[in-house]
Amino acid sequence: MTSGSPENVLFVVMDTVRKDHLGPYGYDRDTTPGLDAFAEEATVFDNAVAPAPWTLPVHASIFTGMYPSRHGADQENPYLEGATTLAQSLSAAGHDTACYSSNAWITPYTHLTDGFDDQDNFFEVMPGDLLSGPLARMWQVLNDNPRLRKLADMIVSAGNTAHEYLSSGEGADSKTPRVIDRTKQFVEDAESGDGDGWFSFINLMDAHLPYHPPEEFREEFAPGVDSNEVCQNSKLYNSGAQEIDDEEWDDIRGLYDAEIAHIDSQLTRLFDWLKETGRWDDTAVVVCADHGELHGEHGLYGHEFGLYDPLVNVPLMVKHPELDADRREDTVELLDLYHTVLDTFDADATATATEEEAVALDPTRSLLSDSYREFDRADDPDPAQQAAPSGETGFIEYSRPVVELKQLEEKAADAGIELDEDSRFYARMRAARRADAKYVRIDRIEDEAYRLDEDPGETENLADSDDEAIDEVEGELAIFETEIGGAWTSAAAGEVSDDSVEEMDEEIQERLQDLGYME
């Protein structure tokens, strides 16, 4: 940190927002006038890479500075365990910390909120007293019993889906205004105390399926579209149980744009308040997405079963006095933001328990450092730094998506469709991505590779070609895989089963019925 570093950090994740639907990235619809203005005083990154295509592992990476294979939080083990978080380190250093989100993966249950002084997920699927009663006991049973633990990710996903409906236009008001209001209150409370600056992390869920935007935004971006009449279940489409024609895709994208516009309006409200109260100049602001979304590209809907660029090449804009208001095309990884925040606060990470691992501040991963992404200068290089010392490559990991797979199988079975187990639906994937090329290793089907500079739509698979850039990123991926314990070269065995729920008591089984997992 230098003397010019701000006292506070506001970290915003726009969940499921793909960058090509934002004004700063050239979108031709006026979805983001607020972010357009923000981009004028921020650094805009064109090649930001997410470490995974979905919420839990991405946030775990941002909060720990670890790749998914290291922190281990995925759909088969939906918990962050054995790692000291960014919030724990900052709180220990005397900073006030808060996390506000309506995403069911970002809760005390998954341990992603460990270390925050204050947190709220605004979760309203069930009454509050139930959260401290049967549901809490159910979660404890799942946690404590290895045979039952595989159900936990299913329950979180079900809660997420239910909550997103209830917290959107068709069920109730969006929770995003409450997230913004709670953030403002936290800032006021933090500055009235004796803390040494504040760190506020917010995740805004509006652009996550299902799309039920507030009426004023729906009328602007999807006039005449009934959100209850379009396909809002990605598993129906991905399984082949339901088709979507071009007109319906246009309607879906219109609703998606309306949700993004609502996010933008609420962020603008927060930014304006920080300016009006004289806090803007003392606050570094990070705005990014954790992952994007597919709307029919590559025959997929949602953010599962692929590592295509609309999912993993995410928007990232950073306002910081040590960074120029500019546009950059160099590769940035979201887990670098862990180090950037530590650097901003002149803090470091120390394990909070003997059995925990803490990632120390690495200047070669801080956006503020003169040695940023000069990985040959790293003191203790991680697998990615060893694989690509030039810093030009980002790495992505996607373990078996058991939650989506279970739901996909159910939708397919209901439609009389049998899914091919040797397909992307059952696959694990890892990728190495440079600005010009990407290589994706897939354990059940053929690998994929694309020249992103010549084929940004990723339409021509060059995995078997002699392309030099493809060969280079594939070689880096091979080193990365070796350093993390080996490539996924054979199909993962085992499946999520409901058989173990018979061990639960009657009240807990009733809660699973409410969530749709038992009849």
Task: Outline the structure in words.
- With about 525 residues, the chain is of the alpha/beta class.
- The model is unreliable at about 125-135, about 165-170, about 495-505 and about 505-519 (pLDDT under 50).
- The longest helix has about 30 residues, at about 245-275.
- The protein has 17 helices and 14 strands.
- It folds into two domains: about 10-120 and about 165-490, 3-Layer(aba) Sandwich (Alkaline Phosphatase, subunit A), CATH 3.40.720.10; about 125-165 and about 495-519, no CATH class.
- An eight-stranded mixed sheet has the order 4-3-5-1-6-9-2-10, with helices on both faces. It has a four-stranded antiparallel sheet with strand order 11-12-13-14.
- This is Sulfatase.
- It holds the Pfam family Sulfatase.
